[in-house]
Amino acid sequence: MEKTTTQELLAQAEKICAQRNVRLTPQRLEVLRLMSLQDGAISAYDLLDLLREAEPQAKPPTVYRALDFLLEQGFVHKVESTNSYVLCHLFDQPTHTSAMFICDRCGAVKEECAE
């Protein structure tokens, strides 16, 4: 995916969800928006802290359910080695193979198309 604004990315996600006939709820959309503002991977609990700024009543299951949905739709990836999540920058491509590069020093995660 070329550089896009957060609004363009969210609009693309909404379009994909409509085509797939799945529901992108306001909470799921907000979690995706928060992830799009991150420079790299983020833990579920760090996402929860950010979500609570707008929704103080948010609980861990709220974030985990949203992340599960976003994972199923291919909008995010789970970085198992750091137990964190990162936005998929190729989610507009129906199928793709990518590799995640994780910096040993700072923990930054970069996705590269492997094809």
From TrEMBL:
<protein>
    <submittedName>
        <fullName>Transcriptional regulator Zur</fullName>
    </submittedName>
</protein>
<dbReference type="GO" id="GO:0045892">
    <property type="term" value="P:negative regulation of DNA-templated transcription"/>
</dbReference>
<keyword id="KW-0862">Zinc</keyword>
<keyword id="KW-0479">Metal-binding</keyword>
<dbReference type="InterPro" id="IPR002481">
    <property type="entry name" value="FUR"/>
</dbReference>
<dbReference type="InterPro" id="IPR036388">
    <property type="entry name" value="WH-like_DNA-bd_sf"/>
</dbReference>
<dbReference type="GO" id="GO:0005829">
    <property type="term" value="C:cytosol"/>
</dbReference>
<dbReference type="GO" id="GO:1900376">
    <property type="term" value="P:regulation of secondary metabolite biosynthetic process"/>
</dbReference>
<dbReference type="Pfam" id="PF01475">
    <property type="entry name" value="FUR"/>
</dbReference>
<dbReference type="GO" id="GO:0003700">
    <property type="term" value="F:DNA-binding transcription factor activity"/>
</dbReference>
<feature type="binding site">
    <location>
        <position position="106"/>
    </location>
    <ligand>
        <name>Zn(2+)</name>
    </ligand>
</feature>
<dbReference type="GO" id="GO:0000976">
    <property type="term" value="F:transcription cis-regulatory region binding"/>
</dbReference>
<dbReference type="GO" id="GO:0008270">
    <property type="term" value="F:zinc ion binding"/>
</dbReference>
<feature type="binding site">
    <location>
        <position position="103"/>
    </location>
    <ligand>
        <name>Zn(2+)</name>
    </ligand>
</feature>
<dbReference type="InterPro" id="IPR036390">
    <property type="entry name" value="WH_DNA-bd_sf"/>
</dbReference>
